[in-house]
Here is the input.
Amino acid sequence: MGPECGILKEGLSKRKGVAIAAGTLLLLVAAALLTGFEASGEDEAGLSRFYGIVYESDDTRAVGEPVPGAEITTEQDYNLTGHYVNSTVSGEDGSFEMFLPGGDFKVTVMKDGYEPFSTSLKVVPGRDVNMDIFLVKKPSGAGVNLSSEKVSAELLQGESLMIHLEVMNTGTGTDTIIVEISGKMREWASLGEPVITRSSGGGGPYAQSISNIDDYSIGNVDVNISVPDDAQAGKYNFTIRATSQKDPETFDTMDIYITVKEKENEEEVGFVIPSVGIGAFVLSLSIMGFVFLRRRAL
Here is the structure.
């Protein structure tokens, strides 16, 4: 074998060694990258941190108390056959956090007692997104209307009167409504048993409970008023209040006015016309006059 063959063989051996070394290096780099990927957090894998706080608010977006237990859901159209969905729940301080890939998302936040919240979100890979969310409380759903055809009356000492009340549940869903009498002269009044299409319960002379009244249904309660014989003449009033038990801050009131007049004294009169009628009375007088004149003539 000539010297040229020896040089060629040596060159091939060196190239083979370099190739093996390069292949080994590539394997080591790949292993390192794989290990680094597994050890790094999701945010280092191209995901973005989406975080914020859920607050209670009014329509003006004024910041109120944090809302714990709100469900935050993010949804992204992933492809024609499926989509990407992620969800979490706000903590005691109202905070939340999740990791999302890049793209456009729909964010929905729900919590019992609050109006649903929905907005859009654009996520850039590797960039955190901070968003505070404001939930508006739902209306209580309670409503009460108290009405009567008669809210004033004139009574003599010792007289009585019954006033018919109508109590309407103007809220949503069934409710229990408490009807009460208050005022300085409430001892003159008492409430009868309520009448509705469902069950009702008593609460004493000054309060009645109208239970399970449907929305926009009416319960009826009578107010019985008795003026004492020794009541002073003058003007009096007391208040009727109907209160929702669904929301005690929801109520309606009505004032009833009573004017008390003194009884006229019944005086004895010397001559009382009989109840038999004026014709018989005149005839009686004529007969009496005839008898009187005849006796005088005799």
Remarks:
- The mean pLDDT is 75.
- Residues 187 and 206 are 8 Å apart (CA to CA).
- The first strand starts at residue 48 and ends at 57.
